[in-house]
Hints:
Blueprint: H1 3-95, H2 99-113, E1 118-122, H3 125-129, H4 135-145, E2 149-152, E3 162-167, E4 170-175, H5 176-196
Parallel strand pairs: 1-2
Antiparallel strand pairs: 1-3, 3-4
Helix pairs in contact: 1-5, 2-4
Amino acid sequence: MTGLDKILNHIEEDAKSSADKLIEDARHQAEAILAEAEKTSAEQAEASKAAASAAARDIEAKGRSAAQMQKKRRLLAVRQELIGSIIEKAHQSLHTLDDGPYFELLARMLDQFVLEGTGEIRLSARDLDRLPRDFQRTISAAAGKKGGTLTLSHTPCDIDGGFLLVYGGVEENCSFDAIFSAAQERLQDLLHTFLFSDPA
Length: 200
């Protein structure tokens, strides 16, 4: 082997050795990069899984909360409907009272609503037609308790039960419709307390 061949052979071996070392280093670097990528990917997957799990819990909690709110709204609507129905039935029951109990109720209402002074009471056409004979005495007695006088008008008024009181041109509507309308909120509160409060 000539000197040149030896030099070339030596250069070739050095080049092969350097190439093998570079390949080995590159393989180690690739493995390290791959291991780091797998680790990062696993961490990201775990973080994504945790985030998805947290989001799912949040969605579930919001869904449960929304369902509870909807249930409460439905329950409130049913309660309001029930209370409204009870109030309406009570209101309508006044219109179906027999004459005796009906005019006894009007007498109690007179005791409550009549004022001092001179006034007039007006009834519906239906009530004027079925008026008890002694009802003028009942009217006068109720007014007398307050130091006033009250006369019965024979001109019917446009109400459906109850009466109108007129003092000096000022009309006080004591019809069932007006009384129920004025007391609607208070009646609803009383019924709600009675029907839905927990007994202590």
